[in-house]
Design brief:
Elements (H helix, E strand, L loop, with lengths): L1 E4 L2 H18 L4 E4 L6 H14 L7 E4 L1 E3 L10 H8 L11 E2 L8 H14 L5 E4 L21 E4 L2 H7 L13 E4 L2 H5 L3 E6 L5 H9 L17 E5 L9
Parallel strand pairs: 1-10, 2-3, 2-6, 3-5, 6-9, 9-10
Antiparallel strand pairs: 4-8, 7-8
Helix pairs in contact: 1-2
Bound molecules: fructose -6-phosphate.
EC number: 3.5.99.6
Protein name: Glucosamine-6-phosphate deaminase
GO molecular function, one term: glucosamine-6-phosphate deaminase activity
């Protein structure tokens, strides 16, 4: 595991460099996309490079990490809509080249299985962008998730719903209780994992991720087993590292 400590803007540039290098080497690369605050600067940087240098996503494909269950198709916090707004529409990416788990499917288990098949049919994810929850989740694999899990329905912890209430006008009751998420086993099959964490609130989770024992109680610790994992931290997120 490679750990880099820098300013949030420098971290975004490093993550965007990794995406750009991949796209230049392999224009039809498969990118794994996280939602939430952590990747926003990276998406800003990629949008800037697309506009100013013509960095092209035209042949690339994208797979989202997760989705809330039951949010209306036009809900602004539905992850599909967030991803379209934050990255897809800004880099000239055809929306149909980016997929997410279908949180509105009638048969959610079937939607999860279909999603796994789509990722496999695309040849797997080349580079997966990740954030980390204060409780150590990646994707929405909350503490206690099987380290071998695949895309499935999960119940969000109270902690995660409180953390994400800021996107729902501060109303924790407005945050869905369930989500679909790529499993830890799914995420671990991506060829390069790039995790971003900033702020003191992430310090304990980052300490566990980098220095803790591998444990389902801190799901991100599975990344210690990955052959190519990059962890990008600001000083505050790194403040509990030995
Ligand atoms: C989002 C996701 C989550 C977030 C995590 C951190 O698609 O999978 O694991 O990355 O909850 O969220 P932020 O970045 O908002 O602190």
């Amino acid at each position: 595991m490679e750990v880099v400590i820098a300013t949030p803007q420098e971290l975004a540039v490093l993550a965007a460099d990794a995406v750009e290098a991949l796209l230049r080497r392999k224009p039809d690369a498969v990118l794994g996309l996280a939602t939430g605050s952590s990747p926003l600067r990276v998406y800003d940087e990629l949008a800037r490079r697309h506009a100013e240098t013509g960095l092209s996503f035209a042949q690339a494909r994208g797979f989202m990490l997760d989705e809330y269950v039951g949010l209306a198709a036009d809900h602004p916090e539905r992850y599909r809509n967030v991803i379209e707004k934050e990255i897809v529409s800004r880099v000239g990416w055809a929306p149909e080249r980016v997929q997410g788990p279908d949180g509105l499917a009638e048969d959610l288990a079937q939607a999860c299985a279909a999603y796994e098949e789509s990722i496999a049919a695309a040849g797997g994810v080349d580079l997966q962008i990740l954030g980390i929850g204060t409780d150590g989740h990646i994707g929405f694999n909350e503490p206690g998730s099987s380290l071998a899990s695949r895309t499935r329905i999960k119940t969000l912890t109270r902690q995660t719903r409180e953390d994400n209430a800021r996107f729902f006008g501060g109303e924790v009751d407005q945050v869905p209780r369930h989500c679909l998420t790529q499993g830890l086993g799914t995420i671990m099959e991506a060829r390069h994992l790039v995790l971003l964490a900033t702020g003191k609130g992430k310090a304990e989770a980052v300490h566990q991720l980098v220095e803790g024992p591998v444990s389902a109680m801190w799901p991100a610790t599975i990344m210690q087993m990955h052959p190519h994992a990059t962890v990008l931290l600001d000083e505050a997120a790194a403040s509990r590292l030995q």
